[in-house]
Amino acid sequence: MNNNAFSSGIEPGGLTDKNQIKILICYMIKCVDSGLTGKQIADILSADGLVNYFEALQAVSELNNLGHIYEKDELYSLSKSGERIVSELDTALPISVRDKAVHSAMQAARIYQNCKDNSAVIIENENGFDVICEVKDRSRLMMRSVIAVPDKLQAEMIKERFIKNPAFIYSSTLLLYTASKDEIIDGISGAVEDMI
Fold this sequence. Notes:
alpha+beta; 3-stranded antiparallel β-sheet; two-stranded antiparallel sheet
């Protein structure tokens, strides 16, 4: 049984080589224009079983110390040397590992941005819980809704789904208020297909 803290949690096909881990982190950052936090990087790679959580954090720290990545407003971006690493070495990574990591990274970046731009707050009251969801465009409030639910589990589910895709919820709500029945069915089914 392997008791090494730096290799536990890695699925078959995951990475244990420090250099490959660093290349993968640079590749992920390059593919996500908005940048990623160090915690997001470690969470993504460990949740997918690609890299051990602690190994990922250590690699982020080393890349930062070497100047291959830099942090601004909690988000890491690539420096010129980091870009060079990706352009010269990205083929050293298995395609399945790259694809899985980038897909998860893009999802995490979208959720992070949604949380910054929009909000969902749960407030407990005597009848249960209210979920207050707000869609913003920069500082302008575009939509605010209050959804009353009887229990915390439903409130958390609504909050999570709202944060994952507030644009879909906003556009669907707008469609409900402005379109005919057939347009609503077509618009929502088309939007759902785009999400899948």
